[in-house]
Structure formats: C-alpha cells, structure tokens
Write a structure and sequence with these properties.
Distance between the termini: 16 Å
Number of strands: 11
Shape: globular
Structural class: alpha/beta
Strand order of the largest sheet: 3-2-1-4-5-6-11
Strand content: 15-25%
Oligomer: single chain
Helix content: 40-55%
Order of helices and strands: EHEHHEHHHEHHEHEHEHHHEEEHEH
C-alpha cells in the first residue's frame, strides 16, 4: 500500500487512555513492545493490508492544562503502568504529539467536567456555538494539512458527560443546524459538538465513551450528508465484556439468571468524574442494558461504580451471579476482574483506527460501522449483543475486504 499518513485526533487527548495510546503507539513504532492486546494483530487479519504503525500521528482536543509527558509521568507514579525507562525512550515523540493538541470546548459538559478546565480552554467560554464548531473543525483541518494526512480518524476518549437531554433525541439535522446558528444554549452536549466538527472536516468518528456523540438521529443524518464513517458507543473492556461472553452461556444452557450484581471500584480521572451521580447514571445505563438483551428477560440487577482514589488506574470488578438450574436448584458464579483500565482500552483504540481507515480506504465512506460492534458496550445499529457473534461480524467483514483486494 502507499505509505500515506493517517491522523488520530483524540477528544480528551491528555487523559489516561489517550496517553496510553500515545505511549503505546510510539513504542510500537520504535519496535520496543510486543503486540499483545491488539485485536488487529490477530493472524486472521494479516491479509487486510492495515496501516502500519509508522503511518499514524496523534493530535487532539483537551480541556485541561497538562501534556502527554506530564500525564504519562503521573500515570507511572500513581499506577505503576509505565516503566520509567519506557517513558524516557518515548519522551521526544510525546512532546511532538503535544504540539498537535488544541483547547476543546466546555459546552454542555456538566459541572464536574467543567471543574477540570484549565485557562487555555476557558478563553473560548463566550464564543458562539457556530464559532465553536468552526474552531474545532479548523483545528482538525490544520492538523491534517500540517502533517500531510490522507485521512483523520477522530476518537472520543473524554470523560463521561451527563445524559443527553430528551429533546436532543428527536432533533432532525435541519433543526440542529438551525439551533447551532441561532440558539444561545446548545441543544446537544460537547461530545456531539466535537462529532459535528469532525464530520464537517470530513473525518471518520469513533465514540469510545458513554456520552451521546453521534448516537443521535441528527448525527446519523449528518454522517450520510457529509459521507463519513462513524461508530460507537462506550468501549467494552472489562466487566461488560465478561457479561457479553458469560450471559450467552446461561441463555444457551437454559439456566435461569435470577440476579446479577456487579461492583466496580477504580481511582483514575474517569472514576473521579463518575463520582458525580449525574455522570454516573450515563455509565450505569450503558453497563446494565446488556443482560436483558442477551437473556430475553430482565433479572434483578445492580451495577455500582465507586471512586476509590488509591486504586489509581487499576479497576476491580466483582460480580455475583445467582442462577437456577434443574429441579429449581439455586447456584452461583462469582468472578473478579482486575486490570488497568487504560492498558485494556488503548490497544482497542489503535485497532479501531486501523479498521476504520481500512474501511475508508476501501471506498465505503459513509454510515455506521456495525462490524466494530464487538468493541462497544452499546454499539450503534448492532444486530446482536453477544460478543462472540459480534466478533464473527468483524471477521466476516475482514474476509470480504481481503477477497475484494485480492480479486
């Protein structure tokens, strides 16, 4: 393939997952790490002709005043995720990525996220909605031109917003455009404003957060109008991944799940934001709907998410499943999942960027990428909630693309 360069534009650029993406990408480019955790490196996908690591360059929007270098050092000190020698070897590249990061927006982010804002982003607090969209879109275009990028994939890795207002769920594209021109208050949250800016710049868009992003009728319309690819919603990395694997087992064996309780604790920035009950409600809904979809009935469920500062990026989920078997005998399954949130999520971001770029290069430039459903808790337009079947859809897509390229 032609060695055209590809941009990864990250919303929430200096967050934990984003920083791990930057560190990981640089380590891959330098050949100083393996490919464990990267779905796109599975042998099944070797004939896809995916973008090489050295073709990728990172930029993004951020509301805090920090840097990749500072964030990585903080991460290393508080969670022990990065070895100091690794950070030293990638520091120059992280500093180069830092130059590509621009101030984002505080429109409809909620009080908790707004409290994190630095001085750089607050200078734009009084600009109009239309000016905000134009500025954000212009930042991406400048990034693309400066680095001579064939395409840019925008990935939302920002903190979880409060739930979208009900009125936004029924807006048509025409109504949304009019509101952005004339309204004093945005009818949609920041995640959607970023998505509009991305689409206006001709970029593909991925939403790895529970926030609304492109999961609104007006944005689905806009994607078709602008002829751009998009997908989401909310990355599936830990407890919910386990649910999507285990729940089909209970369903297929006709074991009646009476209750499923999941307790999650972690101490990173995402956990701090989710300590706000308003923001937490968006995340809990994203984690809780899956069981009913898979089982075909709703067991008693409880999902708790608690911020425990000392945990850092180490996320622990403890689940208790109470089920009923033959002769009405009651039994239980318990499991504990512990991992560093960002190490689980970052390789999936790189995977999705590669798969998205490949679909774009294939010539399919519009609509929801349902073949990426296995990466999300609440995948848009998904045809199945089961992880194994979703992964089969990714393989089927890959087989089709490989056959097209070899014919």
């Amino acid at each position: 393939m032609t060695k055209q360069r590809i941009g990864i534009w990250i919303i929430g650029a200096w967050g934990g997952v984003s920083t791990t993406v930057a560190v990981g990408l640089t380590a891959l480019q330098k050949g100083i790490t393996g490919t464990s955790g990267l779905v796109s490196e599975n042998p099944f996908f070797e004939n896809l002709n995916l973008a090489d690591w050295d073709q990728l360059v990172i930029g993004g929007h951020e509301i805090r005043d920090t840097s990749f270098v500072e964030a990585a050092k903080h991460f290393s000190e508080t969670s022990g995720v990065f070895h100091p020698a690794l950070l030293q070897s990638v520091e120059a590249e992280l500093k180069a990525f830092d130059k590509n990061v621009k101030p984002g927006t505080l429109i409809q982010v909620g009080d908790t996220i707004r409290s994190l804002a630095g001085d750089a982003v607050q200078q734009f607090d009084q600009e109009s909605l239309q000016d905000t969209v134009s500025r954000l879109s212009g930042d991406i275009r400048e990034f693309q031109e400066q680095h001579d990028l064939a395409h840019v994939v925008v990935v939302n890795l920002a903190s979880t917003e409060p739930p979208v207002v009900e009125s936004a769920k029924t807006l048509t594209l025409a109504e949304l455009k009019e509101a952005l021109k004339s309204a004093d208050t945005s009818p949609v949250p920041a995640s959607t404003i970023y998505a509009i800016a991305a689409m206006n710049a001709g970029c593909s868009h991925l939403n790895f957060t529970p926030s609304a992003g492109t999961d609104l009728p007006a944005l689905v319309e806009l994607a078709e109008e602008e002829q751009v690819l998009h997908g989401g919603r909310d990355g599936k990395t830990g407890e919910t991944l386990m649910k999507s694997v285990l729940a089909p087992m209970f369903a297929h064996r006709n074991l009646n799940v009476m209750s499923w309780v999941g307790h999650n604790i972690f101490g990173n920035l995402d956990g701090k934001v989710l300590d706000d009950p308003v923001n937490k409600s968006n995340k809990v809904h994203s984690k809780d709907h899956l069981l009913t979809e898979i089982l075909g009935y709703k067991p008693q469920t409880l999902v708790s998410i608690e911020y425990i500062e000392s945990m850092g990026d180490w996320k622990t989920a403890w689940d208790h499943i109470h089920f009923q078997g033959f002769l009405d005998t009651k039994m239980s399954l318990q499991f504990t999942w512990q991992g560093t949130d960002s190490i689980l999520a970052a390789p999936l971001v790189l995977d999705m960027v590669r798969f998205t770029e490949r679909e774009w290069r294939r010539g399919n430039r519009s609509g929801v990428m349902t073949h990426l459903s296995s990466f999300f808790k609440s995948p848009m337009q998904a045809t199945t909630p089961e992880f194994e079947r979703q992964y089969q859809q990714l393989e089927e897509w890959a087989k089709l693309v490989s056959e097209e390229s070899s014919s």
